[in-house]
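Q: Start with the shorter request: fold the first protein.
A: Done. Sequence, then structure:
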Amino acid sequence: MTKVEEALDWQGAPVDCQTCPHQDLLADGACERGRTCIQDRRASRMDRFFRAHPDLANEALRHPYFLRRAVAARRANIFHLPRLVEDDDPEVRAAAVERLPERFVIRLRQDPEPRVRVAVASRLEGSELMPLIADPDYYVRVVVARRLEEQSLPVLMRDVSVDVRLEVAKRIPHEWLIAMAWDTAPEVRLIVASRLEPSQLQVLMHDADWRVRHAVACHIDPDYLPQLADDPEPDVRAEACRRLDDHIAHALDRNGDSPNA
C-alpha cells in the first residue's frame, strides 16, 4: 500500500483544516486534506485545488509561499499575471512566462535565472529567439536549437555544447549538414551519418568511431561497400558484406542470371 506523505503547510506545520479560510469547501467535500488542498506545501495538491477552484487562484498570487504563487499563476486570470515578471522567485516568473503574452515574455530574456530563460526560449519564435543563441546556459541554447527556424540553425552548428550541436544536427538543412561531418563529437557525426544522402557518406567512411562507420555501411551507395567490407570492426564488416551480397544478388536477378545457375 502506497504511503501518503503527511500533509504539511508551507512552514512545515501539519495542515489544520479548522483554521482554513475555505471551511465551506471542506464541508462540501470540494477539498481534501492530503490530496486537494490550498494549504498543503506540495505543488500537486495545490494544483488540484486551483484546478477545481480557479476563481481562488488570483488572491493566492500574493501569498508569501513562492510555490503557491507559482502554482496559482497557472490557473489565475491572465490579467493578473504581468506583475509576476518582477516576482522575487524564479519559479513564479517561469510559471508566468508560460501564459503571458509575448511582449511580457521578451522582457525576461535576460533574467538572471536559467530556468526562467528556458521558459522564455520555450515561448518565443523566429527573430525573437536570436538573442538567446549566445545564452551562457547550455540548456537555454538547447531549447533555442529545438525551436529556431531551420534556416537559422547554422549559427549554432559550432556551439561549444555537444547537446546543442546534437539538436542542430537533427534539424539543420541538408545543404549545411555535410559541414557537420567533421564535428568533434561522435554522437553528432552519428546523426549526420543517418541523415546524409547515400552519395555523400564517403566523407565518413573512415570515421574514428565504429558506430559512425556502421551507420555509413547501412546507407552508403553500394559502390563503396567493398572498402567497408575490410573494416577492422566486425559489425561494420558484417553489415557491409550483407549489403554487398544483396546488391550482387539483385544485380544478377536484373540481368536474368542466378548465382546458383
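Q: Next, the second protein, separately.
A: Sequence, then structure:
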Amino acid sequence: MHFLVFAAASSFVLAAVPLAQAQPAGKVVQVKIGTVSPLSGPSAHAGKDIENGARMAIDDLNAKGIVLGGSKVQWVLQPEDDGADPRTGTTVAQKLVDAKVAAVVGHLNSGTTVPASKIYANAGIPQISPAATTPVYTNQGFKTAFRVVANDNLIGRTLATYTLGTLKAKKIAVIDDRTAFGQGLADEFVKGVKKAGAGTSVVSRQFTSDKATDFSAILTQIRARDPDVIFYGGMDAVAGPMLKQMKALGLRAKLISGDGVCSEKMPLLAGDALVDDKVYCVVAGGVGAAQEAGLNAFTQRYQQRYKLPVQSYAPYAYDGVMVFAKAMQTANSSDPAKFLPALAAVRHEGVTGSIAFDQKGDLRDAAMTIYTFRKGKKVRLAVLH
C-alpha cells in the first residue's frame, strides 16, 4: 500500500556475523525481526494488525526449534510505531538499524515505506512491506526492498477495469487524500479509466487530506456532476465519515477504493451509510480455492488469539516473517549479506498464496481480491490476476 525505508552497513555486518556463525554449538542465538506500522493515530487498528500477524509468525518459528550456523535460534520481534508519519518512519527505521535487526516487515503506508527504505538499503537490511503499494518503492533499485502485495499499477488497472466492465460506470468522480498511497492509487486508477474507458469520463477530480473530517464542499461539487461512481484514494478512517456525508447529501454514487478501505472496521466507521453494495474495494492479494484452507486456518487462529478480526494485513505480515526465516535457513545464516540472495530467489507457499519476487522485489503473479460490504460484513466477490 501505502499506500499505502552506508556506513551503518559495515558495522551491522560485523555485529551480525557472530550471531549466526561464531556461537559455540548448543548455544542459543537471538535473531531480531523488526516491524513498523502506525500503532497510534487513526490507522492504528491496521498497524496493530501487522504487528499481530508478525508476532504469530515469531511464535510459530520459536516453536519449531530452528538452527542456524549450528546454534538454536530464539526469534524476537521488535515492533515500532511510525504513526503513519514519514519523518517518524525514518527515525524508527534508524532505531531498528541501530538495534541490529536482521530484517524488517513494514511499513504500512507508502509515504513512510519509501523514505525508510533508503535507510534499510544503506544498512543492507532486507525489508518486506506487507501493505505499501506505490511503484516508487521498488523502482528505486534497492536490492533490499520487497513486498508481498500487488503494486498500484496493477491495483489501479484492476479497479478501473472492474468499475467500467462490471459496475458499468459512465461518469466517475475521483478524490484522493494527497498521501503517497492515496494520490498514487488515484492516479493509476485514472490512467486505467482513460486507457480502457471509451464512453466513460472522469467528471471531477477533488482532493482532501488523511486527517480531514469535513467533505461537504468537495462532495457538493461532485453531486452537481451526478457521477455513477466516486473513487477514493485513501484509508478507512476518512472513507467512513465521507460515506456518512455522501448519504446526508443524497449522493447515490458507489464508492470505489483500494485496500485501505477494505477493513473490518469500515462498518463501524461508516455506520448506517454503509448500505449493501455501496462500497467496492480491492485488497492487493488473494488466494484461490486450493489455498483458501490455509488462509482460513490462519484467520481462525488470529481471532482465537487476539479476540479480534483480521483487518487486512496480518496474513501478509505473517508471510513476510516466514519468508525471511526461509531465506535464512537456505543460507544457514541470519547475516543479511548472506541470506539476501536467498531472499531474492525464494519460493514460499504462504497463507496469502505463492510468494516469489521479480527483479525489482515485486510479487510475481500478484493476485487481487474484490470485496463489497453487505449487512455490515465484508464479502468477497472475485479473485483477479
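Q: Describe the second briefly.
A: Residues 18 and 122 are 21 Å apart (CA to CA). The chain has two domains: 7-150+294-355, 153-283.
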